[in-house]
Amino acid sequence: MELSILLVLVLISMLVFSAFFWLQSRISPKEMEVIPGSLGWPVVGESFSFLSAFSSAAGIFSFMKNRQQRYGKVFKTFVLGRFTVFMTGREASKILLTGKDGMVSLNLFYTGKQVLGPTSLLQTTGEAHKRLRRLIGEPLSVDGLKTYFHFINTVAMETLDQWSGRTVLVLEEASTFTLKVIGNMIMSLEPAGEEQEKFRSNFKIISSSFASLPFKIPGTAYHNGIKARDRMYDMLDSIIAGRRSGKSIQQDFLESLIMKHSKAEGGEDQENKLTDKQLKDNILTLLVAGHDTTTAALTWLTKFLEENPAVLEKLREEHINIQSKRTDGASLTWSEVNNMPYTNKVINETLRRATILPWFSRKAAQDFEIDGYKIKKGWSINLDVVSIHHDPEVFPDPEKFDPSRFDAPVKSFSFLGFGSGPRMCPGINLARLEICVFIHHLVIRYKWKPLEKDDSVQPTLVRMPRNKYPVIVEPL
Ligand code: HEM
Ligand SMILES: *[C@@H]1O[C@H](CO)[C@@H](O)[C@H](O)[C@H]1NC(C)=O
Fold first, then answer.
1. pLDDT per position as a tens digit, 50-64
2. Structure pTM?
3. Which of 212, 336, 360, 413 is the S-S candidate for 90 at Cβ 3.0 to 4.6 Å?
4. Could you give the 3-state DSSP secondary structure of residue 106?
5. Per-domain boundaries in the chain
6. Whole-number Cα distances in Å, 383 to 28, 89, 430
7. What does the pLDDT average to over 13-26?
8. Which atom of ligand 2 is nearest to the CA of 406?
9. What CATH number was assigned to the domain covering residues 88-475?
10. How many whole angstroms separate alpha carbon 107 and alpha carbon 364?
11. pLDDT category, 215, cuts 50, 70, 90?
12. Is 287 in the pocket of ligand 1 (CB under 6 A)?
């Protein structure tokens, strides 16, 4: 009796397995055979090792590194339901990032797509993408940002006022700072109070849903993310309604988009017309794309400075020099913040060394060839940016933190801190502005020591210190 049950079980599992293999051989592309690498188990592929690398100390990058050691710089895999090819090098980056229109599109995880919505900048291509970038580009341009400089400077000083003699989690502080800035830019949110708290807590839930599995069951990160997104949209709806009724008038991002929208309704300016859905999807997109990245950059920068006293000394010199030219009591000015050459090298070196986004993901929209490999429509191609940023030919002794690498311009497609081509980061000027202002006040006032030595990273798409970088701060 027992034996027959066992036999049946063996038979069933053999059937299931052969069905899996049959399925895999049916759906795995023949063209992929020439590319080194393993597609892993049927159906699940290498998803389990992908997910376990994700939560390891070295982070998601270890998945890539592991396979590169085994297969070389170009390899294939099958993760989370996708045939994926990893590539690296300047040639591949040139093709993938500047590729002719319609050759590739941005490749988001399913969860990200669902949370951000179909009209997000991240999900549009071609002309629609260009148009959206134009619309959001204006307030994020250097001129557009001038309006927000005073607010950014004030919030940075107020944040740092609280640091004296305390233990702080740099990542939390950086997160609060950048969220206050973007909340104010977008919808004139006050830096403190109930609305700010609501905004902050909803945003945090949305943000952590991005790296979750797409199970829409109550209690999962994904489900909570969608719910928080809906609350955020309700908040935006009521602000938009307030603006339309003329009850409140502000000078912010939302206002400029609403103005364009109402002008477009008149008829002649259809180009700039955005529906409310598009408006909300893209405001959320800016929040999502801009927050964790800037927070991570500020945190890594603070960490690298402490670990490299000579760089900190030189940076401090630049800022004390700026300060000493001021008359008593005056604060940082717009023209000063636009003239910080060494600080900008330190920012670039931080983005190189930390490589906050370890790879850029694209989906082939047509067949093409890179480095002799034939890429087929529908495949995911991930550009390994960590290897590009640590290429010893371009950056000798790549692990070293050395801003003087940027004394001379680096070769094109060697430094991709903000990406390149039509999808290059539209928030670059804002990110630089926030970092320059914050770092200015930090280095002229304080010194800091980490409370523990830990180099592991968080299980998120954006690389950040897992321990949030706790430091003890003292006045200079
Ligand atoms: C230090 C901070 C930042 C870093 C390191 C960073 C990095 C990047 C990179 C590398 C890309 C290109 C990704 C790719 O090609 O796949 C990108 C795109 C993007 N970034 Fe940033 N970013 C930062 C801050 C910001 C800020 C502050 C905003 C907005 C307020 C922002 C909004 C965006 C958007 C919307 C895109 C997508 C552009 C498109 O698809 O056309 N980023 N960012
Ligand atoms: C930093 O990198 C950007 C490219 O993202 C480049 O345009 C800029 O010149 C670099 N700045 C410095 C000071 O090297």
1. 888 877 888 878 888
2. 0.91
3. 413
4. strand
5. 88-475
6. 21, 8, 25
7. 56
8. 14
9. 1.10.630.10
10. 9
11. confident
12. no
